[in-house]
Design brief:
Layout lengths: L3 E4 L6 E4 L1 H9 L1 H6 L6 E2 L5 E8 L5 E7 H9 L10 E4 L12 E4 L1 H7 L11 E4 L2 E8 L2 E8 L2 H16 L10
Antiparallel strand pairs: 1-2, 3-4, 4-5, 6-7, 8-9, 9-10
């Protein structure tokens, strides 16, 4: 698929956009005037952001902040937004990939399930207890014990299976490759 690459100002990374989105943003009166596409930076969260301070007539300053993935979704995918599904995420995990096929509205719970694990085992829902590994998943505010396993990979597999059963494609999956 064809896409446009835009170099970030503060990193050796690129944003990816569909040609039609790139053209829309380039030709938009306000975004063109402020140089949106020429002044994108990598935010500490990993996404592309535009920030500029404007002096107002009263002498105060106002900071204009535009998160590119949110702008693209609100402009081109707004029919998919709902009261529950109102956060924009990247299907492939790359927050700089702002192509329409990669952006999706999701719920706070779905977004939470997609965060990287902080477990010492290296797997979501897997915790070492003595010499074995416990698999646990949360559902509707309750922890579900999935069993004790000899290896973290076995526990992660059990977690993945239950996550798929409970959440389908919106569930977190541990990488077992």
């Amino acid at each position: 698929m064809e896409y446009k690459r835009i170099k970030l100002k503060n990193a050796d990374d690129y944003v990816f956009l569909d040609p039609s989105v790139f053209e829309h943003l380039e030709e938009h009166e306000h975004y063109g005037r402020i140089g949106l596409l020429d002044n994108l930076r990598r935010h500490s969260s990993g996404c592309a952001v535009f920030q500029k301070t404007h002096k107002q007539e009263n002498g105060n300053y106002k900071i204009e902040t535009i998160y590119l993935h949110k702008l693209v979704a609100e402009t081109f995918l707004s029919e998919h937004k709902s009261a529950e599904m109102n956060l924009v995420g990247a299907l492939n995990g790359n927050k700089l990939d702002c192509r329409l096929s990669n952006l999706v509205y999701r719920s706070r719970a779905w977004a939470s399930r997609q965060r990287k694990t902080t477990s010492k085992s290296g797997y979501m829902g897997v915790y070492k207890e003595n010499k074995r590994f416990r698999a646990v998943i949360s559902h509707e505010g309750k922890s579900i014990h999935l069993g004790m396993f000899d290896t973290p990979e076995e526990a992660a597999k059990a977690y993945n299976e239950k996550s798929w059963e409970l959440y389908g494609h919106m569930g977190k999956q541990n990488d077992l490759s």
